[in-house]
Amino acid sequence: MLLKRVGLALSPDEYAGELTSEFVFRTRYLCNYVNRALTSLRFATPNFRQVIVRGVHSPIDECLVVPEASVRATVRFDEARYRAMGPDEHHEFFLVMLEEGLEKCARHHEIPIDFLRGSIRSFRDGGYRNEWVHQQKLLRPAGIRASLLCRLDSERFELTLRLERQGLVTFERVILETKPDELIFAYRFKEVVLRDDEVVVLSKFGEVLYSVPIANLAKAD
To answer: Who's near 133: CB < 8 A, 6+ residues apart?
Structure first.
């Protein structure tokens, strides 16, 4: 098996469903950053595909392999502190939970702990930002360079379409905004194409997410 993801969650047996759901959404920006780096590593494991760090009242030292080929590491969740923080105040709270859980897992299972430490350090040093270019493409014969730019934070995911001609930005707009979870946004976009006289953004199923006539580019905001 290959280690494909790490995740942060709360114990559904100890915390209300609304809190556990909110917590998963708010931590995806961090886990997505680490997981995108992890995909390129292709680290082989004997019997698990993911490491889930779970917040609980009373953590245990063991890190068991549980159904769905997961290793579960438990760490203490400070609910009162979590609830007292605003959206821009919890970065280190999440990072410390994730770091503690991964270090605990590394004591029981062989995981790429140095690589994971480096990914977390990069995230921290980069100001807790998770931004990436999904696609950059030259649309011939229109001479337009199109970019799909992704931004994920604890509150939302945003997809921006940027169009350039001769190095000048002629169009830039957020064309998709969702809750911060790959299950919600990942299938919604795949590529930019030139179709007749329009620049079109297609989903993974070939559906049109967004289109803009080339004639309108000079008038774009």
So the answer is: 147, 148, 149, 150
For the chain, the domains span 5-125, 130-219
CA–CA distance, 3 with 105 (Å, rounded to integer): 13
- How far apart CA 30 and CA 34 sit, in angstroms, is 7
Mean pLDDT to the nearest integer, 170-178? 97
Examine the pLDDT at 221 and tell me if it is beyond 50: no
- Say how far apart CA 34 and CA 189 lie, in whole Å: 21
What's the chain's average pLDDT?
Answer: 95
CB 32 within 8 A of CB 152: yes
50, 3 Cβ separation under 8 angstroms? yes
Exposure on the CB side of residue 82, measured as CA atoms within 13 A: 18
